[in-house]
Amino acid sequence: MPGKIRKRSPLKPPERPYIALGLEGSANKLGAGIIKHSPDGSTIVLSNVRHTYITPPGEGFLPRDTAQHHREWAMTVINDAFKKAELSIHDIDCICFTQGPGMGAPLTSVALVARTLSLLFSKPLVGVNHCVGHIEMGRQVTGAQNPVVLYVSGGNTQVIAYSQQCYRIFGETLDIAVGNCLDRFARVINLSNDPSPGYNIEQMAKTGKRLLPLPYATKGMDLSLSGILTSTEAYTLDKRFRFNENSREGDNDNIITPADLCFSLQETIFAMLVEITERAMAHIGSKEVLIVGGVGCNERLQEMMGIMAEERGGKVFATDDRFCIDNGIMIAQAGLLSYRMGFQTPLAKSRCTQRFRTDQVHVAWRA
Amino acid sequence: MEVYRYQQFPSHLATVHVALFDNVTNADELHARLIRASTLTGSEGETEREAVNFAFIDARLIASIQHLKAAVYHAILAATQGGLKTKSVHSEIIWTLNPTNNITEALRRYGVSASSSSLFVVRVDRPLDGLVERLSTIVHGTLVPLDSLKDMTNWDTIKKHYKLNDEPAIRNAAGDKDVERRKIDRIVTSSVATKIVMG
Amino acid sequence: MSATQILLSQATQISQGAEAAIYKGRLSDSGLDEEDVLLKYRFHKGYRHPTLDASLTKARVAGEARALLKCLRADVNVPAVRMVDALEGVLGIEWINGKSVRFLLGGGAEDEEVTEEMADGENLPEDATEELEDQLLEYNVSSDEVMTMIGTEIAKMHLADVIHGDLTTSNMMLRLPSPSPSNKTELVLIDFGLAYISTLVEDKAVDLYVLERAFSSTHPASEPLFAGVLKAYEIRMGKEWKAISRRLDDVRLRGRKRSMVG
Fold first, then answer.
1. For chain A, which has fewer Cβ within 10 Å, the N-terminal or C-terminal residue?
2. Is pTM, for the whole model, over 0.90?
3. Closest partner residue to A357 among C48, C55, C260, by Cβ?
4. Mean pLDDT for all residues in chain C
């Protein structure tokens, strides 16, 4: 592009290797990851361990039980991470943990572990914004330079772009998150939560044929999802709905199957997501898009985003389930970046917060 | 008479002939003839229907040529898309001019009636020769240039049909006739152009 | 090929945005006084299911046409509608002869690619205001008058409960005095692609806030200019201003977005 001036990154190459432990537990995944930044500029994932709290079909995860799960598994997961990295806790520079946003009780249980380790081994703490963790890991894994970021998970739905040391939110959900919408619908049709409700919806949608009309609610770069969930649920009470028929006999247009509903739900919601992402790309003149967050694993979403990006002469970047789904390594990555810029979280300020907006973080490590 | 060509439409709908008559003396007769033509059967009916196969539009309710052309355009578009709400492209023009969906009301207001003294005659077809001569046997009046319309328009009736009297666009004109007419024209032309999506 | 597709193929493409391509064309190819029309074509989106794509396109073309008509009745300066083909996703509107306010205020052309790195705005030329007045000379208006026109048009639109949804200086044009029907320079609001109807104070306040943000990002040191917009808006809105003003203050504090939960 003519006339484009690139500012030099304020992040200096490390004079020695830096290693960070990242702890994540803002929802039902407990993760511990260890990352290394080397003087040659390379970033190496030394380990990335995760344990997911899975509830029976038809049930969501409650904060108290999830926190209980995290407490029970914390030591196992962290020890496992060190074992895989072939390191001891003495080798690390800092302990990074998710400070928000997320569910209060699980966040607090993991932060408590982080603080304890910090005091026991005299390692500085670095509080990390969960969304920024996703973005930084996505950039690292895919090599995307300055993408528009679509962050889609169980708790968040945002279209984000970087501007002047801040990840600005261009668009977001006005009510519930995409993942939440899909998870709740999975519960309605009694899909398994193993490995995740969203994965099972995606598989089921592949056999769906019939696109049922659902509300389509984008408003500029924002979107609303609760009405779609309600409408999709309403179809399960329709007299044409057949709970147990997953493949129709011939071309029977008069029945609605759970697969049809999964298909319609995905097609409608993802079209909205791609649309607002494209609008943001047009707005800032970017040709790259990065999808992060648990719903970002969905291959249909990636495919639709790919078609859009191609039509614009751009490119879509996505990561697989190791990095898309909540994990410890992304917290380590974002935490280590800010640690290298001299940032630490004093113990007195290490409280978690359920509300922690992406644009509240000072992104000191980018130009 | 003016002829407008629309290359984008199929050839039998691509040429629009528009004539404007003033001092029309046989409006009541013409009105009766149109009704009779629609009820006649057999070959006699077909001949008669072809003889009066035009849109006869009361010029008093037309704000501008632009206004009329918007209605013609949408009638042809509907015809090419199989979306006619009425029997023919000519009656569709009249239906499109009226703000409501009521076909009878549209014909009564915008079609020829006993009180019509100035008439637009529109024919959508392939290019036709000798149309002026043919028309002079049907309509008894003076063929005038289209811009004579400016002295025929009855703005108050248009305002009434489109319920414009309380609209800010009219109130803000504060009695300035030129400003007001320009605004009425913009509104009614746009209304005609958007009618198919207003349902 | 459908009639409207042929129409597009004979027109000249002017620009292409995320959702639509803009063409300049003529509905009829005869008649000396045949005017230019702007054709906005909402093209097919390959990523969307075809059924969904068709129904969305139709609804949006219709929605934009309706918003324009509502504005015309409310005496807001907007382009008149010339043709609608909802099936093909095309809206034809009056061609406005003039330039965008963004361009005239020195914010660059719309398609000009400005990267974040360049947009720091520190080295704004000192004679920026002078240049600005030069650009406006042809239109015979001062920048203050332009601000007043902007505030007045938005107020008329909001009084009719139309929310534009994407108010930026790119979506306002100054129409040259000579072809304008009133022989005065007019400010015309364009691109109602995201418009909707709402009576809520919140929606009107957010509409203004979006414009305020657009002003500060495209026109550095624009606070006094925008104050002129709000002043004219206030006068026109009359007693409705108070509630909107209060809500605008709230919106500024929280940013456009609400605080996020989990």
1. N
2. no
3. C260
4. 85
